[in-house]
């Protein structure tokens, strides 16, 4: 069993085609009297292949694909104002300003009058799968509201006459899922903990990582710093391999390990930022999104650490502990190198 530990970790990562398993759309509702405009951005690469291809075809002007998907949307999304259904108008498809791999769907609703109590429905999870969710932002006359449509919530009711309540909890949940579903970030945390020795040292390097990624996450989301994803993703893979090698051949002292961890934390922060930058969040909701998402990342990281540290402490307490951790570090090196090659050269299919 001990000999197979590193192999099982490598097998787990090998079988995971992407670093993040959830797919998130962003719906932005703009209210103007009795008119509602929904602008939905969908990440086609994260959806089922058939759905992604259909959306891309519709955005490229394929009339048959556009009509087929529009019919599906008419059955899955709806709006209701003060108890009366709003009439759905034109549904248009286009490429998103965010670039390739995303399609923008624009839906127009016409209500009998300016709604005071608005019901919105989104059942896209039924066709996009249980790991899909829609982050929704409603911009109304008394402030914005944020919430999430997912497998557990497919309808929301809003009192537009009441002051807006911050929906940062939806972004917090997105942050938790981003790191829990982000195997590359979790493996970097594992590599940190394996080579950091005693509990105090482990807490120290995790704290350095937390401070660093919070800095670059904030800078990236606020538009104050940018590094292309083509650079960041290979660098994250390299960070896993590097820390695995340090675990095997010596970290060169606690101070140096904290510095290296901080530098790699800056890199991972840009990776975390992709969870929000992939969405076109309006500036009015940006701070809410950033605070909620960052808190979610920290909460997810804390949950991971609470699992990792006791497990490593138990392993170290056994006579076979050192050999097992060495094998684990070697597995982490191999995974990091594999991912680096994949992300730089496209050697393997995603």
Short structural description:
The chain has helices at 4-14, 49-59, 63-76, 125-128, 168-180, 183-194, 199-221, 229-249, 254-277, 283-316, 321-345; strands spanning 23-32, 35-43, 77-81, 84-85, 87-95, 102-110, 117-122, 132-140, 143-149, 155-159.
Describe the structure.
The protein is built from eleven helices and ten strands. With 350 residues, the protein is α+β, with helices and mostly antiparallel strands. It has two domains: 4-19 and 181-345, Growth Hormone, Chain: A; 24-168, no CATH class. The strands form two sheets. It has a six-stranded mixed sheet, with helices on both faces. The protein has a four-stranded antiparallel sheet with strand order 4-3-7-10. Helix 10 (283-316) runs antiparallel to helix 11. The protein is elongated and about 75 Å long. The two termini are 30 Å apart. Residues 1-20 have low confidence and may be disordered.
- C-alpha termini separation: 30 Å
Helix content: 40-55%
User: Cα-atom Rg, whole angstroms?
Assistant: 23 Å
Rounded mean pLDDT is 80
H/E order of the elements?
HEEHHEEEEEHEEEHHHHHHH
Widest β-sheet, arrangement of strands: 5-6-2-1-8-9
- The helix-and-strand class reads alpha+beta
How would you sum up the global shape? elongated
CATH architecture of the largest domain: Up-down Bundle
> What is the number of E strands?
10
**What ranges have pLDDT less than 50 throughout 5 or more consecutive residues?**
1-20
Q: Mind telling me the CATH class of the largest domain?
A: Mainly Alpha
Q: What is the CATH topology classification name of the largest domain?
A: Growth Hormone, Chain: A
């Amino acid at each position: 069993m001990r000999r197979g530990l590193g192999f099982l970790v490598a097998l787990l990562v090998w079988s995971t085609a992407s670093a993040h398993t959830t797919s998130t759309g962003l719906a932005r509702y703009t209210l103007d009297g009795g008119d509602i405009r929904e602008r939905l951005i969908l990440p086609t690469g994260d959806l089922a292949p058939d759905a992604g291809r259909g959306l891309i075809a519709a955005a490229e002007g394929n009339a048959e694909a556009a009509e087929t998907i529009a019919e599906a949307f008419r059955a899955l999304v709806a709006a209701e104002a003060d108890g009366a259904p709003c009439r759905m108008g034109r549904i248009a498809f286009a490429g998103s300003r965010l670039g390739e791999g995303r399609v923008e769907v624009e839906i127009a609703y016409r209500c009998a009058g300016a709604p005071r109590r608005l019901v919105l429905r989104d059942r896209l999870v039924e066709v996009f799968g249980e790991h899909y969710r829609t982050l929704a932002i409603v911009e109304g006359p008394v402030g914005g509201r944020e919430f999430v449509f997912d497998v557990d919530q497919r309808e929301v009711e809003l009192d537009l006459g009441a002051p807006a309540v911050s929906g940062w909890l939806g972004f917090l949940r997105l942050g938790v899922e981003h790191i829990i579903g982000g195997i590359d970030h979790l493996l970097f945390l594992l590599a940190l903990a394996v080579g950091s020795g005693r509990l105090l040292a482990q807490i120290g390097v995790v704290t350095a990582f937390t401070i660093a990624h919070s800095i670059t996450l904030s800078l990236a989301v606020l538009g104050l710093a940018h590094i292309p994803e083509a650079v960041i993703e290979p660098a994250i893979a390299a960070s896993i391999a590097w820390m695995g090698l340090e675990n095997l051949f010596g970290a060169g002292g606690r101070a140096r390990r904290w510095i290296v961890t901080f530098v790699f934390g800056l890199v991972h922060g840009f990776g975390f930022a992709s969870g929000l930058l992939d969405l076109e969040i309006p500036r009015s909701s940006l701070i809410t999104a950033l605070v909620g998402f960052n808190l979610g990342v920290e909460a997810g990281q804390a949950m991971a650490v609470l699992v990792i540290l006791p497990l490593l402490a138990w392993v170290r307490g056994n006579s076979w502990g050192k050999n097992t951790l060495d094998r684990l570090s070697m597995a982490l090196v191999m995974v990091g190198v594999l991912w680096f090659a994949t992300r730089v050269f496209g050697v393997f299919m995603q």
